[in-house]
Amino acid sequence: MSRREDSRAGLVMLIGSPRSGTTWLQSMLGSHPAIATPQETDLFRVFLEPLAAAWDKQNSGTIDAEQTRRRKGLPLTITEHEFLEAAGTLLDTTLAAIQKLKPGASTIIEKSPAHSMCTETIVRFVPDARFLHIIRDGRDVADSLVAANSDGWGSKWAPNSVARAGRIWEQHLLSARRAQQHSRDRYFELRYEDLLGPDAADLLIATFAFCGVAIDHSESCALLDANEFSRMRTSGQVSNSILTGGESGDGELARAEPPGFFRRGGSGGWRTSWSMSDRRAFCSVAGALLAELGYERDDSWVGSRAKPSLSVRAANRAANSAAAVLRRFANTIEELPRPRQKRPKS
After folding, report:
1. Rounded to 5 degrees, what are φ and ψ at 82?
2. Region 266-275: what's the mean pLDDT?
3. CA-based radius of gyration for the chain
4. Contact partners, residue 42, CB within 8 Å, separation at least 6
5. CB 186 within 8 Å of CB 126
6. Is residue 275 predicted with pLDDT exceeding 50?
7. Contact 200, 1 (CB under 8 A)
């Protein structure tokens, strides 16, 4: 294994929709001395994906549909392998910097929800990358996203409607799941709700094992207790296990989270805050995926408007019965033989 391949060998990509519990899971995983995990880098989505897209555009020869002169561009100077090696230098520099922040760590977990949208690019640069995908009930995700917008701290990126939030959840989840096509046994999926359930300790053990780290049951329980959501909300900042450094990692803003970031955790909070229109809006864009994942059997969770009063229902039944009688009478008339018309005398 080359030095470059060795630096990427322990890379695990923690992906999932925004507000799905990615930070919470990252905090627990990063608490282990064998795991180094930095604050979100957006390395692939913001830096490497645009570079790869520019290369592909020039290499396909479609950079200018009206171009009649000979081709131009970087692909006429270097090969694709050389391009990936050169662009990959940024990746290796980043990984080396992360390892320096936690000497002795054998696994690097990079958590950026935006990376859910570019798993193909990740595999292109790191064919052996592992993907850890956390899924949360889309209604809780949408509720939290809209709250981030209304609270102000997420107004620059979070949607202001349940429908748009539902679409973001669906897009991130489906895109993240495409990682299975490229990584097969290097893909691990878990549910946010299961980390709150009675078997959470066993699930966390399995999650660590996927990342190449062994922990026992007592260690797992201790991590779940130390990272209990209310404690994180009280502290108001990300766990010390999430590493910061570099050009701007020493400032206070590198660790503190805005009010509202640690909202309430748990599941099912949308039930008390959503109106009927909110439920319908989410179901119209992501209801099918919600059922596919097993969060609901069908769309009956949306409910219906309040039932009419007993007197109104009785009147409706009477009207329906009268209408049925009239329809049967009309059908009977239609079936009677019609008298023959007499021909006029000439």
Report:
1. -65, -35
2. 88
3. 29
4. 112, 114, 115
5. no
6. yes
7. no
Where would I find the beta strands (DSSP E) of the chain? 11-15, 35-38, 107-111, 130-135, 187-191, 242-243
Question: How far apart are alpha carbons 305 and 13 in whole angstroms?
Answer: 44
pLDDT of 96 above 70: yes
Residue 246 lies in a domain: yes
**Average per-residue pLDDT in the chain?**
86
Report CA dihedral (140, 142, 144, 145) to the nearest 10 degrees. Answer: 160
Q: Which residues contact 233 (CB under 8 A, 6 or more apart)?
A: 262, 263, 264, 265
- C-alpha closest to that of 142 among 118, 119, 162: 162
What angle (nearest 5°) sits at the alpha carbon of residue 265, between those of residues 281 and 271? Answer: 35
Tell me the CA distances in angstroms from 328 to 116, 131, 323, one per residue in order: 60, 65, 9
In a domain, 344, yes or no: no
8 Å CB contact between 148 and 260: yes
Instruction: Establish if 194 belongs to a structural domain.
Output: yes
Domain ranges, residue 113: 3-48+75-137+161-262
Is the residue at 187 inside a domain? Answer: yes
CA distance 267 to 156: 25
C-alpha pair distances (Å), 231 with each of 20, 39, 105, 148, 344: 18, 19, 26, 20, 99
Nearest to 265 by CA among 228, 235, 294, 222: 228
Place of tokens 């803003």: 253
> The domain that contains 95 carries what CATH number?
3.40.50.300
112: tokens are 């950026």
Please, which residues have CB within 8 angstroms of residue 178's CB and are 6 or more apart in sequence? 119, 120
Burial 92-122 (b: 16+ CB within 10 A, else e): eebbeebbebbeebebbbbbbbbbbbbbebb
Two tokens at 81? 């392998």
DSSP summary character for residue 43: I
- Structurally, how many domains does the chain consist of? 1
Span 142-157, pLDDT tens digits: 999 999 998 777 788 8
